[in-house]
Automatic annotation (TrEMBL):
<dbReference type="InterPro" id="IPR006219">
    <property type="entry name" value="DAHP_synth_1"/>
</dbReference>
<feature type="domain" description="DAHP synthetase I/KDSA">
    <location>
        <begin position="57"/>
        <end position="348"/>
    </location>
</feature>
<keyword id="KW-0808">Transferase</keyword>
<dbReference type="InterPro" id="IPR006218">
    <property type="entry name" value="DAHP1/KDSA"/>
</dbReference>
<comment type="similarity">
    <text>Belongs to the class-I DAHP synthase family.</text>
</comment>
<dbReference type="InterPro" id="IPR013785">
    <property type="entry name" value="Aldolase_TIM"/>
</dbReference>
<keyword id="KW-0028">Amino-acid biosynthesis</keyword>
<dbReference type="Pfam" id="PF00793">
    <property type="entry name" value="DAHP_synth_1"/>
</dbReference>
<dbReference type="GO" id="GO:0003849">
    <property type="term" value="F:3-deoxy-7-phosphoheptulonate synthase activity"/>
</dbReference>
<comment type="function">
    <text>Stereospecific condensation of phosphoenolpyruvate (PEP) and D-erythrose-4-phosphate (E4P) giving rise to 3-deoxy-D-arabino-heptulosonate-7-phosphate (DAHP).</text>
</comment>
<feature type="region of interest" description="Disordered">
    <location>
        <begin position="1"/>
        <end position="34"/>
    </location>
</feature>
<keyword id="KW-0057">Aromatic amino acid biosynthesis</keyword>
<comment type="pathway">
    <text>Metabolic intermediate biosynthesis; chorismate biosynthesis; chorismate from D-erythrose 4-phosphate and phosphoenolpyruvate: step 1/7.</text>
</comment>
<protein>
    <recommendedName>
        <fullName>Phospho-2-dehydro-3-deoxyheptonate aldolase</fullName>
        <ecNumber>2.5.1.54</ecNumber>
    </recommendedName>
</protein>
Length: 357
């Protein structure tokens, strides 16, 4: 053991270069280079802008539809992703007068400790961590989803990665583990898209409320420009943020009393009362088959007049459940959190639309 006691003076510490524990470093293409290689066409640029406006209208209450952010916990297989997306695109046409469907296209996963960190980090799923390939594959796949006519959503986890995808997104989340981070709030303040801040893993709303107030303001912060150069970035502030209730260590937070408390907390702080409920994570106790019951309760509240509830999130895949990451994987099954399969998802969304009339 050669641990350095925290009270040793700098002079007493063993000489180490600042990078002594960094094994290697490899350059990556800049966001600008990747965008040039995989460009967003004028047609798709217009499509993304139109769907961002549609999401804003639902969040603002100008559009009565329910926003539904639905799709795999994480993308890991391009074929299965496109198979799922084609079905969702069809359902979106069928239910589009009552539900605004946005597909989860999550390529970065925050982990409680360690684990697979998502397609952008490890596209070969084997720990080799080929991030140059992962960023390109993620952007390629997101463009393919847009081509199917779907708006897409993702969690922005690593602020430096945001620029590789941001132009493709109609909605983004800042996750429960990062809502309290000043760096993520700065990032959001410079994004021209609606962003949901999740409550903390402990269930606390305060960090998400602080996040919305911070992100609404202009910031000057350290970041990276399109050429990959570290830069001082200046932002305008983002007025399109909202709260996502995802439950916490004490249990769920989607019931009437939780939503009322969240709405009152937002109103007290002068923040627009716009709330999404994540039917998964701590709201489902991580049991994907409890998501329909959560969605039903949200809908009961909407239909009873709770106008702050503007949408829901669902973790859904081609097939039910999840599987451990192994050399041989079942097609269309999540390798992160358990998901509701396609059949259950389509049934649930049709039932939801029918209740909304
Ligand atoms: O949605 C995914 C997970 O809930 C989150 O990334 C944490 O996962 P973990 O607890 O399995 O690491
Ligand atoms: C990690 C996620 O959610 P949360 O931040 O609520 O845990 C997710 O939606 O994939």
């Amino acid at each position: 053991m050669n641990a350095v006691p925290c009270c040793t003076s700098v002079a007493e510490r063993p000489a180490q270069t600042p990078t002594a524990r960094r094994r290697s470093s490899a350059p990556l293409p800049s966001p600008g280079q990747l965008r040039q290689r995989l460009p967003l066409s004028a047609h798709l640029t217009h499509q993304v802008e139109t769907s961002r406006q549609a999401v804003r209208a639902v969040l603002d209450g100008a559009d009565e539809r329910l926003l539904v952010i639905v799709g795999p916990c994480s993308l890991h297989c391009p074929d299965a992703t496109l198979d799922y997306a084609a079905r969702l695109a069809e359902l979106s046409v069928e239910l589009g007068d009552r539900l605004l469907l946005v597909m989860r296209a999550y390529v970065e996963k925050p982990r409680t400790t360690i684990g697979w960190k998502g397609l952008a980090y490890d596209p070969q799923l084997d720990g080799s961590g080929d991030m140059a390939a992962g960023l390109a594959l993620s952007r390629r796949l997101m463009l393919d989803l847009l081509d199917l006519g779907l708006p897409i959503a993702t969690e922005l986890l690593q602020p430096l990665a945001a620029d590789y995808f941001e132009d493709l997104l109609s909605w983004a989340a800042i996750g429960a583990r990062t809502s309290e981070s000043q760096i993520h709030r700065e990032l959001v303040s410079g994004l021209d898209l609606p962003v949901g801040f999740k409550n903390g893993t402990d269930g606390g709303l305060a960090i998400a409320c602080d996040a919305m107030r911070s992100a609404a303001h202009p910031h000057r912060h350290l970041g990276m420009d399109a050429e990959g150069q570290t830069a001082l970035l200046q932002t305008h502030g983002n007025p399109d943020t909202h709260l996502v209730l995802r439950g916490g260590h004490q249990g769920p937070n989607y019931e009437v009393e939780h939503v009322a408390q969240a709405r009152e907390t937002l109103e007290r702080q002068g923040i627009a009362a716009r709330i999404l409920v994540d039917c998964s994570h701590a709201n489902s106790g991580k049991d994907p088959f409890r998501q329909p019951a959560v969605l039903d309760r949200v809908l009961d509240q909407r239909l009873a007049g709770e106008r702050a509830l503007r949408g829901v999130m669902l973790e859904s895949n081609l097939f039910d459940g999840n599987q451990p990451l192994a050399a041989r994987l079942d097609y269309g099954v999540s390798i992160t959190d358990g998901c509701l399969g396609w059949e259950g998802t389509a049934h649930l969304l049709r039932r939801t639309a029918a209740r909304l009339g």
